[in-house]
Amino acid sequence: MDLIAETTPDEDVQVEKLSRVRKVIAARMHQSLQGSAQLTSVVEADFGPIMAARAAHGERFRAVHGVSLSPLAVVAAAVCRALPEHRMLNATIDTDAGTASYHRRINLGFAVDTEAGLMVPNLKDAGTLSVAGLAQGIAGVAGRARARKLRPDDIMDGTFTITNTGSRGSLLDTPILNAPETGILAVGKAERRPVVVGTGEAERVEIRDMAYLCLTYDHRLVDGADAARFLTALKDGLESRPIAAADLELEPGDE
């Protein structure tokens, strides 16, 4: 940022001009809030299967695929599985025209923290990618964003966005939509904490790896029940079964 030549009377205050990127971010965030009806719904998910897979296969995953097995890639895969059944969250709305456009492709955006400011490149046809493909793709677009080497195609035509606020220690967030998209998911930090599991006589307290999944949605097209159904499907998809080596494209000899 460039310093403004005129100093303020208060010597304890340093006034700086906003960078071009920060001006664009500020304008887009304001436009998003002004142009849509945004609400956030939250569920808590057990990341135990993800953490178990990282412990069992993480080292070999990096050796085979060249990237780490991050929870973000596994969540992204679950998002891609859930979105086709919840098309209102992979859509854009034009209230002036009275239309909604439902996208068959999932161009999954990822919020990237860079020195210049927040960038949101997206992976085209993310629904066709495996966990390994998503992990490699996320690393690729994030690397280009931080190196200021994004291509125009990297930031065009996104349909849904994920922001991994947990990577910076945040437990829960209420993200702003990446307009004109109708949904954005914030993934909070996974923390080990006691939770009640089981029912009836089988009810007990266990230590689990828990994380909040926070969905901001455009209420002009997405109802609260729609958001809850999507989050429930996403939570169930992450918790329902262990992640095997085959899911990570690791051959038996790779384990």
TrEMBL record:
The keyword Nucleotide-binding does not apply. Coiled coil: none annotated. The keyword Secreted does not apply. Keywords: Acyltransferase, Transferase. Residues 12-240 form the 2-oxoacid dehydrogenase acyltransferase catalytic domain. One of its GO terms (molecular function) is lipoic acid binding. GO terms for cellular component: cytoplasm. PANTHER family: DIHYDROLIPOAMIDE ACETYLTRANSFERASE COMPONENT OF PYRUVATE DEHYDROGENASE COMPLEX, LIPOAMIDE ACYLTRANSFERASE COMPONENT OF BRANCHED-CHAIN ALPHA-KETO ACID DEHYDROGENASE COMPLEX, MITOCHONDRIAL. This is 2-oxo acid dehydrogenase subunit E2. It comes from Actinomadura barringtoniae.
